[in-house]
Design a protein that fits this description.
The chain is an alpha/beta fold and 177 residues long. Helices cover 45% and strands 19% of the residues.
Amino acid sequence: MELEAKMRSLREMLLAPSPDPSVRTDSSIFVIYPPEQEIEFRSQLQKMLHVLEELGVAFRHLDLTTLPFEVLEARGLLPDAFTGEFDDYPALKRGMARAVQDALKDRVSRAAAEVPGGAIILSGTSALYPVIKFADVLAELRHLACRIVLAFPGREEGGKLHFMSQRDGYNYLAVRL
């Protein structure tokens, strides 16, 4: 399915009534597209967000492009991160993974509280590569009464998702576009 068709499907899903909040399932939606289509995805997303806003759809858009830097800055580690990356990249990646994952869960939870039954749309997700596995994050957010829409630059191969070039967890219950 082409990106434009995926965005049309996504818009239709977000315009439909939200799932019954008493039923606890993963109501996430993944928009899977090749990483080289990131600019096109962002352009089409902005158009869709404008339509949703005009129609009064409850949503919050979280652009995650700067999240890793914000986490490092909040911990006072931003200047040292660049030199540390070259000294011990695996250790930096492990340390960043938990901090960024916690910050992401916190942001999504706060946004979900602002729009109960609405949608939380995550873009700029490629900035979280390679420290985040979305399977781990979404498993901990299933309790939220909202739809989580995830920009997923990567591919589906044999039923398994690959975020950028990295295998990303296990069998998702999310809708895949």
